[in-house]
Specification:
Blueprint lengths: L2 H9 L3 H29 L3 H12 L9
Length: 67
């Protein structure tokens, strides 16, 4: 199925089905994001950012979050 076919199918959904699809797709995208972050962590692609964050924290260059 092409993207255009998917777009047409989604555009033709009744409101209730569109809501169900929207919720599913939002969860699907969140899961995909989580998988990508996990893969990036395992591959070491976030190591440098983590080191910079640690250095900033240890040197006092962090601002506490307000509740």
């Amino acid at each position: 199925m092409s993207v255009e076919e998917l777009q047409a199918a989604v555009a033709g959904l009744p409101a209730e089905e569109l809501d169900r699809f929207s919720q599913w797709f939002e969860e699907f995208l969140a899961d995909q994001w989580d998988l990508q972050i996990d893969a990036d962590v395992r591959a070491g692609r976030l190591d440098a950012a983590g080191r910079r964050a640690d250095e900033d924290f240890e040197s006092g260059r962090c601002t506490p979050l307000s509740p």
